[in-house]
Amino acid sequence: MIQPQPNDGFEWTQAPWGPVLRCHPLLEVADHFFTAATLQLRDDPREWEAVAREIGVEPERLLLIRQVHGAAVAVARRDHQGSWTRPEADVVITDDSHAAPAVRVADCAPILIADRRNGAVAAAHAGWRGTVRRAAVAAVQAMQETFGSRPDDLVAAVGPCLGVCCGEVGPEVAAAFREAGHPADALARWFTSGRGDRFQLDLPLVNRDQLESAGVPSSQIHVAGLCTRSFPDVFHSHRAARERAGRMVGIIRRRLP
Questions:
Q1: How many angstroms from the chain centroid is the CA of residue 135?
Q2: Residue 75 belongs to domain with CATH number
Q3: Model confidence at 1, in pLDDT bands (50, 70, 90)?
Q4: Which residues are within 8 A (CB) of 94 and not within 5 positions of it... i.e. 6 or more apart?
Q5: Would you say residue 147 lies in a domain?
Q6: Is residue 231 in a domain?
Q7: How many domains does the chain have?
Q8: Residue 237 belongs to domain spanning
Q9: What's phi and psi for 43, nearest 5 deg?
Q10: Is residue 131 part of a domain?
Q11: To the nearest whole percent, how much of the chain has pLDDT over 70?
Q12: Mean pLDDT in the chain?
């Protein structure tokens, strides 16, 4: 199968189970990858064991969360003792090089962030609801408050997600952004008119803009530019397969000191 080509900075690489995407500027700071449809990542523990081996941690050190389409942040400090119990959150951050934050997606935006100065890392799950609540901004702010990260030291990668081409939403979605206080000039960039009263939401652009608004330099924000709905044989897409859709993972690990 021919893989669709991502934007500059992203490249398909090979994992034992098949192709994964990595972002070169982020790879210079932290190991990470975004899976495609070659894994289902539902109930088969062998798939999660393979993911853990590829990122270089024990399976119990995969920092998975119970995602609820919000912007709550879970923190795993390197001096944490005991097992990880999946908290209800949509962002997870850590400074532990023996743990790997991860988010599961099937059209929502997976966002991976690393601090090139202190090594802290984050993974965020941002569908339209989480993006309304500024999940990407919450990740940056939590890294600042918890680990002393400076936004201009952060490198971020936004993986494959629903693109503006397939991001049709109803007027209630535009209203939710407006009611959440997002500025009118930003809304004009993020939403374009669609059929009837529908809009096309540019989810990758919104998250890029939000990362930049949180202080991450534009040159350090990288977007894969691949729409999950447009390539249903390559990516899992809830829009394409509904309840039959599997899940992809965006996962990141701090470099060993």
A1: 10
A2: 3.60.140.10
A3: low
A4: 63, 75, 76, 77, 78, 101, 120, 121, 122, 254
A5: yes
A6: yes
A7: 1
A8: 10-161+221-254
A9: -115, 0
A10: yes
A11: 99
A12: 96
Reported as a single tens digit per residue, the pLDDT across 26-55 is 999 999 999 999 999 988 999 999 999 999
- Judge contact between 245 and 108, C-beta under 8 A: no
- Those residues whose C-beta lies under 8 Å from the C-beta of residue 72, and which sit 6 or more positions away, are 87, 88, 89, 90, 91, 138
Say if 110 falls within a structural domain.
yes
Query: Which residue is it, tokens 């500059």?
Result: 8
For 94-112, the pLDDT digits (tens) are: 999 999 999 999 999 999 9
Question: Is the pLDDT reported for residue 256 higher than 90?
Answer: no
241: enclosing H helix or E strand: helix 238-241
| HEC-encoded secondary structure of 163-232 | CCCCCEECHHHHHHHHHCCCCHHHHHHHEEECCCCCEEECHHHHHHHHHHHCCCCHHHEEECCCECCCCC
Note whether 236 and 257 are within 8 A (CB): no
